[in-house]
Amino acid sequence: MAAKHEKKMKRINTRLISMLLCACLLIAGAVVAFLDAERPEVLTWRRVFQTLGLGGVSDVDAPMQVHVLDVGKADCILVRCEDKNILIDSGYYDAGDQILNYLNYLQVDALDMAVVTHPDADHTGSMAKILSEIHTDRLLLTRPPQDLSGYADSYRTLLNKVREMETEVIYAAVDDSFEFGDLYVYVLSPARRYDSENDNSIVLRMEYLDTSYLFMGDAEEMAEREICRSFPEIASDFIKIGHHGSATSTTAMLLDAVKPRYAAISVGEDNSNLPKEEVLERLSEREIEFYRTDFDGTCVFYSDGETIAVKIEEE
């Protein structure tokens, strides 16, 4: 009799859990539909699952991988090369669980390097949380100013966190380089202290065998001009578009110097209406194949060291 009762209770509990999950999905769908009322073409179940913290992942089998995570109008990029892992930025604080789930799915239990390109909340948001959960050998960031009063809380939290960690902290300088097996990482910017915090972004170029990758952070025209002047041989197969596709970045001068085949725009819907049409036109005019996380979801650019291919979450 007791065994029958126990089985009955298990069935009831299972049904209740299923009903609650369905209710959560319906509520999440309604919320996303309300938020995306003006853009129904991008309303997908992917967005519903992300609302619940269940965002999808894109796994590939290749020695070199660049994962541009869909974290809204923010940046988070995971570079995997052979057995090495580098995380560039960490989205807003709310993206922390999503990023950790993604890393866990890919069995990334340690980072060889984490990079904070600059102090804005959409780049530093969950880095302190991630560093608390995943061992990280070194952290690359720009040297912080003495007065932090105008900076994001997440940035100040990160600086406090690293003081109590064993992670090696490196303040980026132009011409710094790092070697991770066959992957070479070079710091191209900032060359000096700019008035714009966006221009102070760490800009990285990576080389893996015959392929190359450029990560622009939020760098704008002034930093781009300096990079092109200092590094005339900057041609790269891939570029992570600067500042989420803002008109103040991704100048014609930069694109003509880089000559990328692929581009990724990490972007989400907000009042800025990014990416800007003029940026998309510059890319299209040069026949650059571009992907954007608000339409394509998480994008993975992967390579055998000779050619690059792309896998997107919406496929």
Core attributes:
globular; alpha/beta; seven-stranded mixed beta sheet; 315 residues; single chain; eight-stranded mixed beta sheet; 10 helices; Metallo-beta-lactamase, Chain A; 17 strands
Provide a descriptive summary of the structure in words.
The structure is a single chain. The protein has 315 residues and is of the alpha/beta class. It folds into 2 domains: 1-54; 58-312, 4-Layer Sandwich (Metallo-beta-lactamase, Chain A). 33% of the residues lie in helices and 23% in strands. The chain has 10 helices and 17 strands. It has an 8-stranded mixed sheet, with no helix packed on it. The longest helix has 34 residues, at 2-35. The radius of gyration is 21 Å and the shape is globular. The model is unreliable at 1-19 and 31-45 (pLDDT under 50).
Which helices and strands appear, and what pairs or packs with what?
Blueprint: H1 2-35, H2 45-51, E1 64-68, E2 77-81, E3 84-88, H3 96-105, E4 110-111, E5 113-116, H4 121-124, H5 127-133, E6 135-136, E7 138-141, H6 153-163, E8 168-171, E9 177-180, E10 183-189, E11 203-208, E12 211-215, H7 221-230, E13 238-240, H8 252-258, E14 262-265, H9 277-285, E15 289-292, H10 293-296, E16 299-303, E17 308-312
Helix pairs in contact: 1-2, 5-6
